[in-house]
Amino acid sequence: MARTAIVFGCTGQDGSLLCRSLLAQGMKVVGVSRSSNPNLDTHRKLCIAGEIEVTTADISDFREILELLGRHQPNEIYNLAAQSSVGLSFQQPVDTFDSIINGTINLLEVARFAEFNGLLYFAGSSEIFGNTEEPASTKSRRNPRSPYAIAKDASFNTVQLYRQAYGLHCVTGILFNHESPYRSPTFVTRKIVSGALRCLKERDCKLRLGDLSVARDWGWAEEYVEAMQIILRADDLVDHVICTGRMVTLEYFVDRVFSELDICWRDRVELVDSLRRPSEIRCSVGDPEPMALAHGWRAQRDVDDVIQLLVESARHEGLHS
Question: Is residue 290 in a domain?
Fold first, then answer.
C-alpha cells in the first residue's frame, strides 16, 4: 500500500514542488488549501494537476483537521501553509499571526490528541534571525524584525516544545531565501526578472525598487524541498537551516539579471523610498555546514545559477504566452 502525505499549502511554490517530488516517489499525496476554489496553475505547469487529491480545510480548525487525519491516515504531514510575504505582514499583522501561529499549534494539538505517530514537517524561515553578523545556524541568536518573522519564531519554539515535551515526531526546516519560476509575482526576485524583460521590450520602461543594498542567501527551491524530506525522515529529528552559505546584495541580483539580457540596469531602475520595508534586515546568510555534516546535503545551485534559470524560464514563458 502506498504511503500517504498531506501537504498544507499545496498550491504555493514550495507546496507544488513538494507534491511533485512526493508523487515521483510513489506516494499518495493529499493537498490542502484554505480556498474552495484553489489556483492550480502551478500544478498544471508542473503536470501534476489531477495527480493529487486537493481538499479544502482550515488548518486552524481543530475538528476539520482531526477529521482530515482520520480519513487519510497519513505517514507524513508538511505544513507549508500561511501568509508567506514579509512585506505584506507589516500591512496585515493580525492575519499573519493567525495564519502562522494558530495553524501551527492547532495542527500539533490535533496530532497530540489523535496520538499521531507519523512525521510532521514545519516550514521555518531565516527571517527569525534578523541581521546575521555571521552565517546563522539553529544555535544562533534570533532577532525577528517583522510580524511574519515573530510568528515563525513562535512556531519554531512551539514545534520544539511538542517534540521534547510530548514526543511528537515533528521538526522544523529553517529555509533561507529560495526561488523558482513558480514563485509569486509579488516577490522581489520575480519582480526584477519580469521588470528586466519589460525593459528589454519597452524603451521607456522603468523598474521601481526599494533598497538595493540589502543582502540575502538565495537558493533553488527544487533543491530545498528535497532537503525538507531529508530532515523529516532522519533517524534523529533535529531542526536544521537550509541554505547555500553565499550572500549577495540585491544590487548584485539586479545587475546579473539585467546583464543576462545585455541591458545596463542603472538606466532602467528607479529607487523609490516608499518601497523600502520598515525594520528591514540588512544582511541574511545561513551556515550550510551542520546540514552537510548531519545529512551530506549541500545546495548545488547558488545565486548565479538561480538568476540564470529564472531568466531562461521567463524568456521561454514569454515566447509561448
Answer: no
**Adjacent-strand bridge partners of 4:** 28
Instruction: Give mean pLDDT, residues 80-86.
Output: 76
Catalytic residues: 125, 127, 148
pLDDT digits (tens, 9 = 90+) for 175-234: 999 999 999 888 899 999 999 999 999 988 999 999 999 999 999 999 999 999 999 999
Do 130 and 42 belong to one domain?
A: yes
Q: How high is the pLDDT of residue 233?
A: 98
Cα–Cα distance between 276 and 265 in angstroms, integer? 19
How many other C-beta atoms are found inside a 10 Å radius of the C-beta of residue 238?
15
End-to-end CA distance of the chain: 41
295 domain-assigned: no
The secondary element (H helix, E strand) that includes residue 88 is helix 86-91
Question: How many residues make up the chain in this entry?
Answer: 321
- In one-letter notation, the amino acid at residue 246 is R
Count of structural domains within the chain: 2
Residues 146 and 49 in one domain: yes
Provide the percentage of residues in the chain whose pLDDT is more than 70.
97
E-strand stretches of the chain: 4-8, 28-33, 53-56, 76-79, 119-125, 170-175, 178-179, 207-209, 215-216, 219-220, 240-242, 248-249, 269-271
Bridge partners (DSSP) of residue 179 are 220
pLDDT digit string, tens, across residues 295-316: 999 999 999 999 999 999 999 8
**Spatial CA neighbour of 15 closest among 35, 37, 30, 36:** 30
**Distances 218 to 108, 211, 213 between C-alpha atoms, Å:** 30, 17, 15
**Rounded CA gap, 297 and 300, in Å?**
9
**Same structural domain, 51 and 114:** yes
Beta-bridge mates of residue 56: 33
* pTM score of the predicted model: 0.94
Average pLDDT over residues 46-60: 95
